Amino acid sequence: MQLKNPILGLCQQSTFMLSAAKVDQCPDDEGFEVAFAGRSNAGKSSALNTLTHASLARTSKTPGRTQLLNFFKLDDDRRLVDLPGYGYAKVPIPLKLHWQRHLEAYLGGRESLKGLILMMDIRHPMTDFDLLMLDWAVASGMPMHILLTKADKLTYGAAKNVLLKVQADIRKGWGDAISIQLFSAPKRMGLEDAYTVLAGWMELADKGAELAE
C-alpha cells in the first residue's frame, strides 16, 4: 500500500490563526513551530500556499508586503509561521528597523520554534540577508532547510548546477547541518522533500505514515 507523509493531512487542513506585530502578540510559546523566511520576492508566500494547498499567505507582485508575523494552525500543537520579507528598498527605514527588532526577538527567544525554512530565489541565491540567516542558524543551533525557489525559471540542468554550487558553498562556510533542495510552486516541484523535513521537525515522522486512501 502507498504511504503518505503524516504532515500532508495537517497542511491541507491548515487555517489562518493570527498576525502579530510584536513578539508579545504571538500565540502561547508551546508545541511545534516552523518559520518561513526569505528575502523580499524570494517566493516565500507562494511556497507556503503550495505546501498547504491553500491561499493562506498573501502573495503580491510588490515585494515586502508581509509586514507581520503570520501564524497558521496545523493542529492544536503545530503551527507554520510566515516571517516578514526583507531587503526591499521601498520599505521605509523605520519599518525595516521594526521588522528587524521583532524578528530577532522572535527567532532568539521562541522555545517552540523547531526549524527555519529559508527561501532563496534560485536566480539570486546567497544574498546578504541569506548569509545573515545562515550565520544565525548555525550560531544558535537552529535546524535550517533551504528551498531554492523558482527552479522552473531555469532548465533542470542549470537548476541542478546552482543547487550543487550553493550546496558546496554552504558546506564550506557553515558545515553539513543545513539541508537544501530545488523547489517550484507552479510546477509543484520538491513538495515531498519539504514535507519530510517539516514532519521530522514537528515530530510526526516517528508516528508512522498514514495509509493513503
TrEMBL record:
InterPro entries in the record: G_ENGB_dom (IPR030393), GTP-bd (IPR006073), GTP-bd_ribosome_bio_YsxC (IPR019987), P-loop_NTPase (IPR027417)
Sample GO molecular function, one term: GTP binding
GO biological process: division septum assembly
Domain (EngB-type G) ranges: 30-204
Alphabetical UniProt keywords: Cell cycle, Cell division, GTP-binding, Magnesium, Metal-binding, Nucleotide-binding, Septation
Signal peptide positions on this chain: none
Any one GO CC term of the record: cytosol
Pfam family name, one: MMR_HSR1
Cofactor(s) for this UniProt protein: Mg(2+)
PANTHER family in UniProt: ENGB-TYPE G DOMAIN-CONTAINING PROTEIN, MSS1/TRME-RELATED GTP-BINDING PROTEIN
Reported function: Necessary for normal cell division and for the maintenance of normal septation.
Family in the record: Belongs to the TRAFAC class TrmE-Era-EngA-EngB-Septin-like GTPase superfamily. EngB GTPase family.
The protein, known as: Probable GTP-binding protein EngB
Lineage of source species: Bacteria, Pseudomonadati, Pseudomonadota, Gammaproteobacteria, Pseudomonadales
